[in-house]
């Protein structure tokens, strides 16, 4: 497990409501293009890209999910072994912003704090913005996640998005600490379990 | 006596109930029969420990909180004008083992509470819904489906990403609750179209079995592949397959396909092509019984393909039946008349380049005193009356390409006619326009009209 190892892989999942631009962000990052076709993603797509960052080389696996309600039930399975979750909303669509809490909650439920979460407000190029930068920032602060605003169409901030996410991954020092942690795990800890308060001997029905 | 009730029960199972005076939790066997909810210490007991009368009361589903021992709770509360449900309980707090179980119980109780008013339809078998609604004047499809479709056609046909963009989830839930309580009201015109679209999809998704039953999943996928490979051979096979659907499922599927087709006809505005609509709608009408991460991609591709084939070929797959075929009519109006209609009609709304004219005014009916078009073309008949299942679409063309301005008009499901314009329609020049239903066979049109059609570049509604 070494950042300098070019084979080090990280799974990145993209989450967010329909039509916020998850696929477009990935396409911009992967191929530096923007496809103006309006096309809903089916199920889940998978792409991989190697990113060179200062002295590090990381292999990113990008998982693009369909935002449709139908697939929400399956998202936990995809989040499970992810290192980075990019939760996208559309700055011109308040419903997509309101849904952010639920997406982040889903990620936390599955991965706790072992995951880098980036809240991404996309479609900076559009003029009819309804979610201000401040609103996005304060949401990110409240949920303790990284915040970026991007435009997949113009390409603005797309590289920064990935750079910030990767740089926030646990560094080598933390990994050493983790090894220490692992050693501690050999000791079995016994914590008292709260007793059920069901006093079924008394019935008042 | 009570044991026989267990057999007739709408639903039974283990739940936890919180005590009335002393609020401790007890595991009880619950049996829902008629409008009474009985609970027993064990399923073998002949006498219930208690009875909860449901009539006139309400049920609320509390937010799940998995930090608590009793995480998935619902509560039966006294209806308006009452202080308590029974002498021992002001309300009954009940907890289920899982979110799904709690949801099922609440749905079952809501059915008891609100069915007399036409509510409790979410999560209910389509066949049952249709039986219940038949008594309330329902027709071919669930009332909710028709309301949503009508609303979307009236307010959202040109909305970018209709059915793809999500609605506000709190509003969707609120609307669902309103309908579940048996509201017979139309959807408020101030409602966001995406909320209504989400509600539409939610209803379909919550059906215990999708519109295409699980047993036909594989056959349906196979049939849609055959259409992809060779429509001529595939379509008759699809028609055969769909004959195996229960009548109410067939009607609903037909309705949805006709409806989605009319949405896709405006894809230059709403960007929802057949493929896009099929992608977001497919999994709501066709899915395998068990979805896992392993089969999801395959099955969602398959349901999107199936749905796409149905939308694209809806005219061949669902032949018009006598009850939905609008009488053949051809009528003419000119732009002066439209302007007049606009001026006299009570309800006109203008959005971008479109004018929406509510056909409340009799002036809307095209009449036969029109400019340069020969009178034999003019049957003078009014627009067809509102026929819920008929797709009423009107092509509108100009007499000659020289005068060509792009007009599209349609009246779909409701009584609204939309006139879209690309060029200025109020230029004062009188250009005859021709209305005809899309269902009209081209060859039966008078030669003059056919000539106009072929000369016109914009009959591609």
UniProtKB/TrEMBL annotation, chain A:
NCBIfam families in UniProt: small_GTP (TIGR00231)
Keywords, alphabetical: GTP-binding, Nucleotide-binding
Taxonomic source organism: Amphimedon queenslandica (Sponge)
GO MF entry, a single one: GTPase activity
CDD domains given in the database record: Rab6 (cd01861)
GTP-binding listed as a keyword: yes
PROSITE patterns, sorted: RAB, RAS, RHO
Protein name per its UniProtKB record: Uncharacterized protein
InterPro entries cross-referenced by the UniProt entry: P-loop_NTPase, Rab, Small_GTP-bd, Small_GTPase
Region (Disordered): 175-200
TrEMBL record, chain B:
Domain of life according to the entry: Eukaryota
Region (Disordered): 365-389
Gene Ontology molecular function: GTPase activator activity
A Pfam family that the UniProt record links to this protein: RhoGAP
Segment forming the signal sequence: none
SUPFAM superfamilies membership: GTPase activation domain, GAP, PH domain-like
GO biological process: regulation of small GTPase mediated signal transduction; signal transduction
Residue ranges annotated for the PH domain, each copy included: 8-114
Domain Rho-GAP, first and last residues per copy: 124-318
Keyword line: GTPase activation
PANTHER family registered for this protein in UniProt: RHO-GAP DOMAIN-CONTAINING PROTEIN, SPERMATHECAL PHYSIOLOGY VARIANT
Annotated protein name in UniProt: Rho GTPase-activating protein
């Amino acid at each position: 497990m070494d950042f300098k190892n070019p084979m080090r892989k990280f799974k990145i999942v993209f989450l967010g409501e329909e039509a916020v631009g998850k696929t477009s962000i990935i396409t911009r990052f992967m191929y530096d293009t923007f496809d103006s076709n309006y096309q809903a993603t089916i199920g889940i797509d998978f792409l991989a890209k190697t990113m060179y960052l200062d002295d590090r080389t990381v292999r990113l696996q990008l998982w693009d999910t369909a935002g449709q309600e139908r697939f929400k039930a399956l998202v936990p399975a995809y989040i499970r072994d992810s290192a980075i979750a990019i939760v996208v909303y559309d700055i011109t669509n308040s419903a997509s912003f309101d849904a952010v809490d639920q997406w982040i909650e889903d990620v936390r439920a599955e991965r706790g704090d072992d995951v880098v979460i980036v809240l991404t407000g996309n479609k900076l190029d559009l003029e009819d913005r309804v979610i201000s930068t401040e609103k996005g920032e304060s949401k990110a602060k409240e949920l303790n996640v990284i915040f970026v605003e991007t435009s997949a169409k113009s390409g603005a901030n797309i590289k920064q998005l990935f750079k910030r996410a990767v740089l926030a991954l646990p560094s080598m020092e933390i990994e050493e600490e983790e090894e220490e942690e692992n050693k501690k795990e050999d000791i079995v800890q016994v914590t008292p379990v709260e007793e059920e308060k069901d006093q079924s001997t008394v019935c008042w029905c | 006596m009570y044991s026989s009730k267990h057999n007739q029960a709408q639903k039974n199972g283990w739940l936890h109930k919180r005590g009335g005076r002393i609020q401790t939790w007890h595991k009880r066997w619950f049996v829902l029969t008629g409008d009474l909810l009985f609970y027993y210490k064990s399923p073998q007991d002949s006498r219930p420990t208690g009875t909860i009368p449901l009539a006139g009361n309400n049920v609320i589903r509390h937010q799940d909180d998995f930090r608590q021992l009793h995480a998935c709770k619902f509560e039966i509360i006294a209806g308006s004008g009452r202080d308590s449900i029974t002498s021992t309980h002001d309300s009954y707090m009940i907890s289920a083992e899982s979110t799904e179980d709690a949801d099922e119980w609440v749905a079952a109780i809501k059915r008891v509470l609100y069915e007399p008013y036409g509510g409790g339809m979410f999560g209910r078998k389509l066949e049952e819904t249709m039986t219940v609604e038949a008594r309330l004047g329902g027709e071919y499809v669930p009332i909710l489906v028709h309301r949503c479709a009508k609303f979307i056609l009236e307010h959202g046909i040109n909305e970018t990403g209709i059915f793809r963009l999500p609605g506000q989830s709190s509003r969707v839930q609120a609307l669902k609750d309103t309908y579940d309580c048996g509201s017979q009201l139309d959807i408020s015109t101030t409602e966001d179209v995406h909320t209504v679209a989400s509600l539409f999809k939610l209803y379909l998704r919550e059906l215990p079995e999708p519109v295409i039953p699980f047993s036909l999943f594989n056959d349906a996928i196979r049939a849609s592949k055959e259409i992809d490979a060779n429509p001529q051979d595939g379509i008759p096979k699809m028609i055969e397959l769909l004959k195996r659907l229960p009548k109410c499922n067939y009607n609903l599927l037909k309705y949805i396909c006709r409806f989605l087709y009319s949405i896709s006809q405006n894809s230059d505005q709403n960007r929802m092509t057949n493929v896009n609509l099929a992608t977001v709608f497919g999994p709501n009408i066709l899915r395998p019984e068990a979805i896992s991460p392993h089969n999801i991609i395959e099955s969602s591709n398959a349901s999107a393909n199936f749905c796409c084939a149905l939308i694209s070929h809806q005219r061949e797959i669902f032949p018009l039946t006598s009850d939905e075929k609008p009488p053949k009519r051809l009528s003419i109006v000119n732009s002066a008349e439209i302007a007049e209609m606009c001026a006299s009609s009570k309800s006109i709304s203008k959005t971008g380049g479109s004018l929406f004219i509510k056909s409340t005014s009799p002036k809307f009916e095209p009449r036969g005193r029109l400019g340069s078009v020969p009178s034999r073309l003019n049957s003078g008949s009014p627009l067809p009356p509102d026929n819920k299942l008929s797709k009423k679409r009107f092509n509108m063309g100009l007499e000659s390409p020289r005068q060509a301005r792009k007009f599209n008009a349609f009246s779909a499901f409701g009584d609204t006619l939309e006139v879209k314009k690309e060029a200025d329609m109020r230029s004062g020049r009188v250009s005859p326009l021709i209305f005809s239903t899309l269902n009209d066979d081209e060859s039966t049109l008078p030669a003059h009209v056919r000539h106009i059609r072929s000369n016109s570049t914009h009959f591609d509604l």
